[in-house]
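ingest -> fold -> write
write: protein_1
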Amino acid sequence: MIGRYVISIVTGVVVTLTLLFVMQLLIATGKGALTKPRERAQLDFVRVKRNENINTQEIIPDKPPKPPETPPETPPQDMDNIDPDTPTIDVARPTIMGGTDIGGPGRMNIAEGDYLPIVRVAPVYPSRALSRGLEGFVDMSFTVTITGSVINPIVLQSTSSMFERAATRAVVKFKYKPRVVDGIPVEVPGVKTRITFELQD
C-alpha cells in the first residue's frame, strides 16, 4: 500500500517538472518570436512603355479606270445621193391561211403529250429548322388536274415533320402542262416529287 503511494508521488513530481520545463521553453522561444522583426517580401514592378505610334497615314484608293470613249455618232445618210438606177430585189409577200379553226376543246390548240412542269415554287425554309441548322427533304405525291394545277398533296416520307407544312405549301403552287390524250386533257394522279431543304454556305 505504501509502495503505491510512493510510486504515485514520484510519477506526479516527474510530470510536474516536465510540464514546468516545457512551459519555460515555450516562454523563452515566444519572446524571441515577438521581438524579432518580420521579413516583408518586396515586389519590384517594371513598367514597359507602350508603343503609341499609330500609322495615321490616309489610304488613298486607286483611281477607277476611265470609261471607254463613246464612238462618234454615225453621220446621217444623204438621201439625195442615192442612185435611182440601183437594182432592186422583189420579195414576195408570205401566204396567210384563211382557216381559223384551231381545234381542241374550248377552241384551244392542245398538242398530244405527257404532263410537263412549268412553274416550281421554292419552299420557305421553316424558322425552327433554320435556327437549329437542320437540313432534309420531303417526298410528296399529288394529282395534276386538267388545268395544270396541283391538288391532293400527300406527304410520303420526310426527314423531319418541321419540313412537311412548307413542302405542302410549295407543291400546291406548282403549275404543269396537263397530259393530253386524243386531244383531251386528263388528270394525272400519283405524281411524285422530292422537296429538298438545304442551307446555303
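write: protein_2
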Amino acid sequence: MHLPQQLPFTLEVSNISLVAFYGDKPAPLNQLIKNIQSYLSQLQGFAPYQMAQVHATVLGCEGSKTAAGIISKWFYLRRNEIRYLDCDNWLKYLQNCSLLPFNICFGGYKCDRDYNFLSRNQHPYGRSFQLQKVDDTTYIPVLIGWTKKDDLITLDLDQLRRDAQKFNLLHKYHSKADSVDNDFYLRLGTIHSPLSIDMVATVENQIRQILTNIPAITISLAQKDLAFARYQDLSLSLGTTKTIPLPEITIKKLLELY
C-alpha cells in the first residue's frame, strides 16, 4: 500500500531510545570525555553536557501507541511502511543477544591506515571527532568510536541495528536496505556561537590529532551498559529523562514507557 510522506495521524509519538553508558561510564571513557570537554571549554559558547548525560544512542525506538499496537516511527518516515513494534521479542533478543559484548574503540585511528571501513564514505580518522553544524550559530561536538577486532573495524553495531528490523524497529539511518551505520557516537555538549569554516577545521583537526596520538581506548559494551530511555529532548537531560537498565526491564515496564 502506498503511503503519503506525511503522517496521516496526529497521535503523540513516544520518544524511547535504546542507549548505552547513560549514567556511569568506564573510567577511561569518562576521562577521555573530560579531556575533550576541557579543550572545548576554550571556545566561546560551549556548554558541556553533564557526564552522566553523555551517552550513545544504539537505536531509536520511537513509536505511536494505537489500539492496534505501537506504530514504528522510523519505518513510517523512512520507508513509508506501517509496522507495529514487536516489543516482547525485541526485548528477548537484546537480553540474549549473541553479538554482545563487543568492543568499542575510541582514538588511535591513523589517517594512513586501512581499517576496512569507511564511515559515510570518510576515513575513521576524519570521523573520530566532528563539530556537527545545526545552524549558523549552533554546533554539536561529537566523539565517534567503532566496533573493532584485530585492528580492523567490524560491523557488529550495524548488525545489531539491522537485526532490530525483525521486530519492526528501523534504525533512522537505515533508510535503504543497503544503508550502513556502524557509528557509536557521543554528543559532548553544544556550542552556541558562530564559528568560521577555518575555526571549525582547526578545532576538529586539533582534537583528531590528540585522538590519533593517544593509545586507543577500548571499551566493552555488554547488556549491563544498555538502557531504555524515555526522553523529552535530544540531549536526554537528567531531570526529564527516565531510564530503565536492560537487565532490569520487563515487557510490562517497556510497554509502560510508551
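write: annotation protein_2
The chain is about 25% helix and 30% strand.
The first strand starts at residue 13 and ends at 14.
pipeline exit 0
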